[in-house]
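Per reviewer request, we include the raw input and output of the structure prediction for the construct analysed in the revised manuscript.
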Amino acid sequence: MKNRFFCIGVLSLSLMACASNQSANTTANQPPQTNPSDAVNISSNDADNANINNNTNADQATNSVYFGVDQYNVDNQYDSVIGYNANYLASHNGASVKVAGNTDDTGSVEYNLALGQRRADAVKKALIAKGANMNHIEAVSNGKLIAKFSNASDDGRAKNRRTDIIFTKQQPAGYHLDSNGLPVVK
């Protein structure tokens, strides 16, 4: 009988903890807002380069696609990121990418690995739909195992809900990893 009350107590606390992770702020459930023209620079214009280099949210000027809570559909705001990478892959036969799906720390390891894989697969599918060769794209999941930002805040969790497009062969000019380890094409 004592064990039954203990189990019920633990389950109740778990449910309350899950509920307390839900933010009253609805923007926490949305991907970080990015300016698609800042996400990937496909212009050689010096003014465009200066705009990206002076971006106060440099962590968002990446070769990444962000997602809302429990979401894996690629938002239209990332059309320029998808289009640039698909065009590059289509026109450079030796190029290849690893598309790595990531999540925040909410939920189990298993759930987040599956969600990260759905995110990676969605970005892979979007790249293929824009003309990239599917044989040049590997979709993998990091789940919540490789957090680039602290999950202690809504902002950090939002930044961890993303898929990174990482060039593994024949990288475009200006490709590098930023100070957070995120892929950037400048």
